[in-house]
């Protein structure tokens, strides 16, 4: 045997080529799982997410920071942007994000204000202009999934020196939203510091509207201070699984992430092929592996990548001869690694 033979060759000889006993059988199966990538029972498809992630960020001009937003926030299902600084001269194609519907916009101008919402392609939505009001930078969208579950998501930008009547406009729009009898998740830069006494009147307003803020730490930073002004208010706090204030990515404002209980996909039963270890011929497998000329078939190269690929290819080919496969049906309510499968649904390939 060569002096530079890879270490896993000795692991192979230790695990596979010794007599097959009860404990040795377990080791063989573990080795199969490790090397050949075989799953005994993969369980339900994890792409059927039960939670949905919303993130809001005041970006202080969207267009020049689009790449940063795409890289840092792409994992979220809904991205809410305040202070987008857009106007009609900027097309939807110029600010599109891959994997999302075209942006939903309420623009002001290139110098300030404006809000935008991005929604993943997997979600359905309608723009709810009927619950918006004039002279208020508040955009509403109704989101639904394949099970026709719905909620309202909104994004607000309130300029720091707004007149007091802006809260009247805010109340008017929120009252319309509440009349829809849907869960509401309203994010945005409210420019109202929830950690300061100056926000007491706003807190009373939220209480009157039966809304509750879920963000209670600094979200906007200067060299000396931090304020809690990037908020998320809701009428269904029980649906919120987590709230996270992230590290700033493109402005002095931190993105605020809210995870809610909401299926983004309808779960279906699906077929998956697995190894049928109960019908395996381990003695035949051991003998075949023992008879293989590994020096000639595998360890005939000084390139570690070639050796590894030759080993896996030879080993997997042998496994396919002595360990059959079967097709199982994985159902949405199955527990992970569920063992007691309906035999009528199993089909030997």
TrEMBL record:
Q: Which organism is it from?
A: Mytilus galloprovincialis
Q: Which PANTHER family match?
A: ENDO_EXONUCLEASE_PHOSPHATASE DOMAIN-CONTAINING PROTEIN, REVERSE TRANSCRIPTASE DOMAIN-CONTAINING PROTEIN
The record ties this protein, via InterPro entries, to: Endo/exonu/phosph_ase_sf, Endo/exonuclease/phosphatase
> What molecular function does GO assign, one term?
catalytic activity
* Lineage top rank: taxon: Eukaryota
Q: What is this protein called?
A: Endonuclease/exonuclease/phosphatase domain-containing protein
Lineage of the native species?
A: Eukaryota, Metazoa, Spiralia, Lophotrochozoa, Mollusca
Q: Where is the Endonuclease/exonuclease/phosphatase domain?
A: 62-245
């Amino acid at each position: 045997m060569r002096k530079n033979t890879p270490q896993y060759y000795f692991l192979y000889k230790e695990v596979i080529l010794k007599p097959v006993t009860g404990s040795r059988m377990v080791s063989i199966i573990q080795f199969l799982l490790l090397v050949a990538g075989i799953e005994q029972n993969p369980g339900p498809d994890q792409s059927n997410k039960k939670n949905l992630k919303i993130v809001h960020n005041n970006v202080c001009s969207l267009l020049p920071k689009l790449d940063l937003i795409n890289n840092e926030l792409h994992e979220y299902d809904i991205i809410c942007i305040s202070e987008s600084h857009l106007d009609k001269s900027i097309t939807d194609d110029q600010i599109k994000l891959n994997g999302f519907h075209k942006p939903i916009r309420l623009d002001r101008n290139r110098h300030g204000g404006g809000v935008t919402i991005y929604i993943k392609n997997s979600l359905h939505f309608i723009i709810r202009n009927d619950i918006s009001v004039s002279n208020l930078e508040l955009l509403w969208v109704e989101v639904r999934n394949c099970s026709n579950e719905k909620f309202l998501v909104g994004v607000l930008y309130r300029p720091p020196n707004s007149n007091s009547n802006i809260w009247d406009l805010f109340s008017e729009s929120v009252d319309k939203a509440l009349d829809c009898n849907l869960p509401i998740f309203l994010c945005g830069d409210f420019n109202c510091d929830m950690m300061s006494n100056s926000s007491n009147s706003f807190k009373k307003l939220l209480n009157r509207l039966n809304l509750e803020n879920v963000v209670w730490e600094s979200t906007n930073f200067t060299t000396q201070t931090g304020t809690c002004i990037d908020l998320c208010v809701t009428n269904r706090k029980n649906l919120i699984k987590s709230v996270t204030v992230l590290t700033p990515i493109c402005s002095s404002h931190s993105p605020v992430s809210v995870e809610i209980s909401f299926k983004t996909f309808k779960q279906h039963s699906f077929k998956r092929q697995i190894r049928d270890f109960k019908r395996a011929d381990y003695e035949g497998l051991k003998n075949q592996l023992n008879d293989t000329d590994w020096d000639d078939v595998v360890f005939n190269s000084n390139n570690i990548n070639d050796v590894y690929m030759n080993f896996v290819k030879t080993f997997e080919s042998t496994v396919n001869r002595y360990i059959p496969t079967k097709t199982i049906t994985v159902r949405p309510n199955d527990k992970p690694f569920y063992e007691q499968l309906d035999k009528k649904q199993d089909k030997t390939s």
